[in-house]
Every structure is written in structure tokens, then in C-alpha cells.
Amino acid sequence: MPFTPFHMGPGIVVKSLLQGSFSLMVFGWAQIVMDIQPLLVMLTGEGHLHGFSHTYIGALLLAVFSALTGKYLSEIGLFILAVNKKQRLEILWRVSFLSAFIGTFSHVLLDSIMHSDVEPFYPFSADNQFLGLISVQALHKVCLYSALVGGILYFTINWALKFYQEKNRTGKNSS
After folding, report:
1. 78: nearest Cα among 62, 92, 90
2. For 125-143, what is each residue's pLDDT tens digit?
């Protein structure tokens, strides 16, 4: 993937389904952390482009780092953006870890499909069984369309929940 934005599409779908049990901010932070190593290789011209960071063992370690740092960075970001003006939003540790793990593991999977130098199961195997599973063009479409579908799902689910809560609050049950 040409860095993080394409990876966000599947994250938006997960956010729409898990709602408050998933942090899109921590997920996004995990995407950035995953691509630091390839960025450094591109800038210096030294090293393996999709090296250890793009293995599932590397993803495991980077998920822990992303969860520990992303919780606080995301809470600061949400405060600055004034997402909830009434109270400070806190991201639970379990939400932070789940979001970071989904972020790093999905990152390895998506990059494994399109990059021949990714060895997702290293050091146990140098094979990449995911390479070419679908075309790069189809993969990009999946990521872009998942962002659109996820956004629609997110707002539809939130609208339905608010409608249901308002209906119950006012006592207008029609059952």
C-alpha cells in the first residue's frame, strides 16, 4: 500500500461494527507505526523495505507499542478536536489493545497481498501465501470501497441507535 490511507478503509468498517469497542484513532496510529520502517528504508536506501515490521511477530510487538502510546496520543487528539465537549473521552485499555492488534495484523495481511518482499510468517517461513491473492487494483478498490461502506454503516447504525433511544425515552413503543 502506498502508506497508511488505504489501510484505513477496513478500519472504518471495523469501527462501524464495533462502535465504542474500537478506536479508529489507535488503529490509525498503528498504521503509521507499521510504516515507519519502510519510510526509513526509502529515505536512507538501506535495509529491507518490508522487513521485520511486516511480519506477524513484528506486528505483535508493534501492536503493543501502538496500544501503549496510541491510547494517550488518541485521547489528546480527541481532546484537541473537541469531539465531546461535555466530557473528556477516555479510551479503555482493552479497546486500545484490540484496535492496535487489528491495525497491525490487518496491515501485514494487506501488504502481504501486494508486496513480494513481505514475509509475514518469518522466521518460521519465508513464503508469502497471500501474494497475488487478488490483484493490486482489486485490493485498492476493496480498501476504498470498505471506507465508503464503513462510513455509511457507521452513520446508519448511530442514527438507528439514537432513534431507538429517543423512542424509548419518550415512551412511544408501538409493540
Report:
1. 90
2. 999 999 999 999 999 999 9
